[in-house]
C-alpha cells in the first residue's frame, strides 16, 4: 500500500471536460498523474463510487464546501478519484456543482487504485473492484499525509481532517 513519503503512481486518469480549452477537448481527456501533480500541492480523495450515498451526501460535498479554505492552506487543486468512467464522473461533478473547485478524475480500469494498493473488492455486492475510501495530501507528487478508512467507515478521509493536515503542513 502507498504510504507517506511515496510518489504517486505513473498512471493516467481521465477527466471529462465540459468546455473545450487550449489543449483540452470536449469530453474525456487523459490526466497523467505524475505530470499533473508536478510542482503542485494536491488534496486527493478517493471514493468507492460516484452517486453512491455517503460519497454524494458527505464526502464530495465537504471538499466542494471547503475548496476556498484548501486554497488558503496552500492547496493548488482538489482531486476526487473513483473507479468510474469519465462520463459518469463528469455527470456527478455537474450534479454536485464542483466546477472550478474539485477535479473529477476517473480511474475506469482501477489502475490508480491497484497501483496505490488501495482497492476494495465489492464483487459480491455487484460493484466489482473499486477504490477504498481515503484522502491524501500530495506535494510535487509525494504523499505527505494519508488517511485510509476502515471498511464501511467515513471518519478520517473527510475534508475537515485533510484541511487540518494541509494547514499544519503548509510551507
Question: Mind sketching the topology for me?
Answer:
Blueprint: E1 12-17, E2 27-32, H1 33-37, E3 41-47, H2 53-65, H3 67-72, E4 77-82, H4 86-95, E5 103-106, H5 111-116, E6 119-122, E7 128-131, E8 134-139, E9 142-148, H6 159-169
Parallel strand pairs: 3-4, 4-5
Antiparallel strand pairs: 1-2, 1-5, 3-8, 6-7, 8-9
Ends distance: 27 Å
Q: Using the coordinates above, name the CATH class.
A: Alpha Beta
Helix fraction?
A: 25-40%
Assign an overall shape. Answer: globular
The CATH topology corresponds to: Glutaredoxin
The overall pLDDT, averaged over residues, is 93
CATH architecture: 3-Layer(aba) Sandwich
Order of secondary-structure elements: EEHEHHEHEHEEEEH
Largest sheet: 7 strands, mixed
- Beta-sheet strand percentage? 25-35%
Strand order of the largest sheet: 2-1-5-4-3-8-9
What are the segments in which pLDDT stays under 50 over at least 5 consecutive residues? none
**Count of alpha/pi helices:** 6
Compute the number of structural domains: 1
How would you describe this structure to a colleague?
- InterPro entries: PRX5-like, Redoxin, Thioredoxin-like_sf, Thioredoxin_domain.
- It is a single chain.
- This protein has one domain: Glutaredoxin (3-Layer(aba) Sandwich), CATH 3.40.30.10.
- The protein is globular, with a radius of gyration of 15 Å.
- It is 30% helix and 29% strand.
- The strands form two sheets. It has a seven-stranded mixed beta sheet with strand order 2-1-5-4-3-8-9. The protein has a two-stranded antiparallel sheet with strand order 6-7.
- Strand 6 and strand 7 (128-131) form a beta hairpin.
- It is an alpha+beta fold and 171 residues long.
Amino acid at each position: 500500500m502507498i504510504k507517506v513519503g511515496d510518489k504517486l503512481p505513473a498512471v493516467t486518469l481521465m477527466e471529462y471536460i465540459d468546455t473545450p480549452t487550449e489543449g483540452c477537448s470536449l469530453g474525456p481527456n487523459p490526466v497523467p498523474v505524475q505530470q499533473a501533480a508536478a510542482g503542485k500541492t494536491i488534496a486527493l480523495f478517493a471514493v468507492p463510487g460516484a452517486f453512491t450515498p455517503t460519497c454524494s451526501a458527505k464526502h464530495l460535498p465537504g471538499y466542494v464546501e471547503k475548496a476556498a479554505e484548501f486554497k488558503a492552506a496552500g492547496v493548488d487543486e482538489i482531486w476526487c478519484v473513483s473507479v468510474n468512467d469519465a462520463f459518469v464522473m463528469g455527470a456527478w461533478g455537474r450534479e454536485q456543482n464542483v466546477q472550478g473547485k474539485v477535479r473529477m478524475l476517473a480511474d475506469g480500469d482501477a489502475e490508480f487504485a491497484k497501483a496505490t494498493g488501495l482497492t476494495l473488492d465489492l464483487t459480491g455486492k455487484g460493484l466489482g473492484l473499486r477504490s477504498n475510501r481515503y484522502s491524501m495530501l500530495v506535494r510535487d507528487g509525494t504523499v505527505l499525509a494519508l488517511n485510509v478508512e476502515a471498511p464501511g467507515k467515513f471518519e478520517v478521509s473527510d475534508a475537515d481532517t485533510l484541511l487540518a493536515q494541509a494547514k499544519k503542513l503548509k510551507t
